[in-house]
Design a protein that fits this description.
Elements: H1 2-21, E1 35-40, E2 46-50, H2 63-76, E3 84-86, H3 89-92, E4 106-108, H4 109-118, H5 122-133, H6 136-150, H7 176-187, H8 190-196, E5 200-203, E6 208-211, H9 216-219, E7 223-231, E8 235-244, E9 247-256, H10 259-276, H11 303-308, H12 319-363
Antiparallel strand pairs: 1-2, 1-9, 3-4, 5-6, 7-8, 8-9
Helix pairs in contact: 4-5, 5-6
């Protein structure tokens, strides 16, 4: 009982400090949402929108920009997935969703990317940012530059994790329309969907099992990515994508007061997108050059070989067919040559006999 009282006393004493650490922030959420947008990923065409330019707090959906910046660095050759990242004390002290990094630990860029996108780990976001840019602020600058390059004109990042702003710090702000631009770029990268579409993954040699916060991955057919976000003032947000019938749809629901409402609306908007865009033929796969296989016995032949060797059905083409054709052609040509030879010999013989007869007749 004394221990319980002591814990309560510590919490009471620390509460004012914790409150002071976070700047007061006006709530920006609504029922069913502050804003929403649906686009066709291929064309970028808007299929549905509701206050798509309203300012919102992205919360952890912001980590999609972290992912984009990092994948861009990898594509440029400035970073590798197997590069090892040393955890810093600063990264280990970040709260919220995390994988409980320790300054004594090292992880690959790839493992920390999974932690950031599947677990939405804030400590992984900070560790990656410091490793790549040297500091959180320097990485934030990279995020803002990339946002401007993409045309995200109403977006401004102030953190690498999307948590509520600290005292004296401004909140991260964006719009559904701006984040649709980012999502469309990410949808072009299969590796981005690999990280955002993973449902469950082990971390730290499977001692910590991470579960994706995006429940649409298991509830919506074809859903394979993107990210959720939440803190109290920001409400519940999601950027989701799904692909079926050769069509990819991207839906954003920002600032919902309820998580279940957010998910239901996102699923509904994805379905709306698929209704509005007719199915498209999947791109044809590039044919691989055929490599001739060594001849095999009938006993070892697979189903396709057995089907081709059914009795009574002559093969349309092939090595054996070509050999028999050559044999019969040669036999026919030889036969014709023989006939020609005998015909010529007969003619010569007749001529010879005629000459002899003529000779004798002249002599008489």
């Amino acid at each position: 009982m004394k221990r319980l009282y002591l814990c309560l006393l510590v919490l009471v004493l620390l509460a004012p400090v914790a409150m002071a650490a976070r700047a007061p922030l006006k709530a920006n959420s609504a029922d069913p949402y502050v804003s929403a947008l649906v686009i066709d990923a291929e064309s970028g065409k808007t299929l549905f929108e509701a206050k798509a330019d309203a300012m919102v707090y992205p919360a952890s959906v912001l980590k999609l920009m972290n992912l984009y910046v990092i994948l861009d660095r990898i594509e440029q050759g400035a970073l590798r997935l197997d590069d090892m990242v040393q955890v810093t004390p600063e990264a280990s002290k970040i709260g919220g969703s995390q994988v409980y990094l320790d300054p004594k630990e090292q992880f690959s860029v790839e493992e920390l990317l999974y932690a950031m996108m599947v677990q939405s780990a804030n400590d992984a976001s900070v560790a990656l940012a410091i490793h790549i840019a040297g500091s959180k602020d320097a990485f934030v600058d990279m995020m803002n530059r990339k946002a401007q390059e993409l045309g995200m004109k109403n977006t401004r990042f102030h953190s690498v994790h999307g948590l509520p702003p600290s005292q004296g710090q401004q909140p991260d702000v964006t719009t559904a329309r701006d984040f649709a631009i980012l999502c469309r770029e990410l949808a072009k990268r299969p590796e981005a969907l690999k990280f955002t579409g993973t449902q469950t993954r082990g971390f730290r040699e499977d001692k910590f099992i991470m579960h994706n916060h995006n429940k649409l991955l298991t509830r919506v057919s074809g859903c394979d990515g993107f990210k959720t976000g939440y803190y109290e003032a920001a409400g519940f947000s999601i950027a989701a994508t799904a692909r079926k019938g050769g069509v990819r749809i991207i839906a954003l629901v920002m600032g919902s007061k309820d998580r279940k409402v957010r998910d239901a609306k996102a699923a509904e908007l994805l379905a709306t997108g698929f209704r509005l865009v007719p199915p498209q033929p999947e791109p044809a796969a590039t044919p691989k050059p055929e490599i001739p296989a060594p001849p095999a016995s009938n006993a070892a032949a697979g189903p396709e070989s057995v089907e081709q060797q059914k009795p009574g059905i002559a093969p349309a083409s092939g090595e054996h067919d070509s050999g028999w054709n050559k044999f019969f052609l040669g036999l026919g040509a030889g036969f014709l040559l023989c006939l020609g030879f005998f015909a010529i010999a007969r003619i010569l013989r007749k001529n010879s006999i005629s000459d002899i007869r003529s000779k004798y007749m002249d002599m008489d």
